[in-house]
Each structure stands twice: as C-alpha cells, then as structure tokens.
Amino acid sequence: MARTTAPLLSFDAAGQIGKTQVYASWKGRAYARRYVIPSNPKSTEQTLTRTTFSWLQHAFAYFPTAAVAAWELKASNNRITANNQWIKDNLALLREETDLNLLVMSPAAGGGVPAGAFTVTPGNDQLQLVLAAPSLPTGWSIVKAHFAVIRDQDPQTQTLYTVSYAEDATSAYDQTITGLASAALYQCAGWFSYLTDTGKTVYGANQRTTGLTT
After folding, report:
1. How far apart are alpha carbons 55 and 82 in whole angstroms?
2. How many Å apart are CA 120 and CA 147, to the nearest integer?
3. Closest CA to 2 of 29, 26, 27, 33
4. Burial 159-173, CB ≥16 within 10 A → b, else e
C-alpha cells in the first residue's frame, strides 16, 4: 500500500499500489516504476557487472580525501555521491577487462583543462611522476598537481586495492612515490586542480600511463 503526503494535493507517495506500480524518492527526486519481483540472475554478463561493481566499491575507499575532490565536484553537479559517480564512470569501462588500463582515476570537473605530458620513471620499489603544466585560460592558476598509483590487477579476480598518492604545489610538479612492490606494474595518473578567474576550484581530467618498478 502506498503512503501519501498531503494526498489531496498529491505532493508525495511511497510504496507499491496493487502490485502494479512503486512510488519512491531518491536524493530528493520522486520517481515511479513498475512493480517487479527481484530476480537473481547469474549469467556471465551479470556476474561481470557484479564483480566489477564490488571491486570499484572497495577500491574507492582506499583513495585519500585529496584524490577524490574531483569526483565530489562532478558528483555534486549530478546530485549523486562521489562513490556513485566513480562507479558510474568506470563500470562500463572495466566490466570486461582483465587489467586497469581503462580506469579513470580522476575525472574532469568544473571545466578544468587536462595537463600536458605525464611521464613516469621507474626505480627500486618506487616511481617518479612528472606532470607538465598546460596553457591556462586568462586569469587561471594552478593550485597543485595530484598523483595517484594503484597496482595493476584484474578487477574480476584480484583485490590489491591500495592507492598511493602524492601532490605538489610547485613547478616542475615532480613527485616520487616510494614503498611500492618490487617488479610490479602500476597504473599511474596525474592531474591538476586550478583556481579560475572567478575564484572557483576546478579539475582537469587525469593523464594516464603505467610504470614497472624495479
């Protein structure tokens, strides 16, 4: 039975009616859908989706606060959570992959411009990351460069979630991340946050490459 708020004016409703329709709200947005009895399919495609979704859900928890700011900004514009935005942007990209080559570690948000060249120099259990500054619109400035690395893995079978992060607010935007696994392949990302001429902080899409430690 649906429960209504201010029924004569039909402001709101929640629940099912006659096992035909379901009314609810999500993040303040009302919606209606057909009443269905949930199923639990275990097809190959459904399994891929569930496994990748689970990997993304857990991996996001390992990103430090500074590394998810762009996700939070993009998500706020779409009225969803940062975690849901991360999953939305990456699920279709990774669900049939056996590595993280397509992973979006940080999105464009607020109209930020992408960085210039991104280079990674491997070392002994470490990676040196250098991000080149792009040409900026008039009145813009770089706040800082952000760097993140995660061990390459199969999102269907592996759970090497740990994310290492570094940042640099000074040119030439060069950081070395240490304490990594030996002779291991890492997915590496670099992006800039900017202060616009209107005083807003925005983010450019990440530049991506891989690095193999020695």
Report:
1. 16
2. 11
3. 33
4. eeeebbbbbbeeeeb
SS3 letters across 10-39: CCEEEEEECCCEEEEEECCEEEEEECCCCC
CA–CA gap between residue 125 and residue 166 (Å, rounded): 15
Q: Contact, 63 vs 99, CB < 8 A?
A: no
Nearest to 210 by CA among 192, 184, 181: 184
- pLDDT, averaged across the chain: 90
Q: Which two tokens stand for residue 85?
A: 């935005």
Token pair for 46: 């459904």
User: Which run of H or E residues covers position 3?
Assistant: strand 3-5
Domain boundaries, the chain: 3-34, 44-212
Alpha carbons 81 and 12: distance in angstroms, whole number? 23
Q: How far apart are CA 126 and CA 212, in angstroms?
A: 9
| Whole-number pLDDT of residue 40 | 65
Q: How far apart are CA 148 and CA 61, in angstroms?
A: 14
CATH architecture designation of domain 44-212: Sandwich (2.60)
What are the residue ranges in the chain where pLDDT is below 70?
1-12, 27-28, 38-44
Compute the distance between CA of residue 7 and CA of residue 208 in angstroms, rounded to an integer: 53
CA distance 100 to 117: 20
Q: How confident is the model at residue 10, as a pLDDT?
A: 55
8-state DSSP, 109 = B
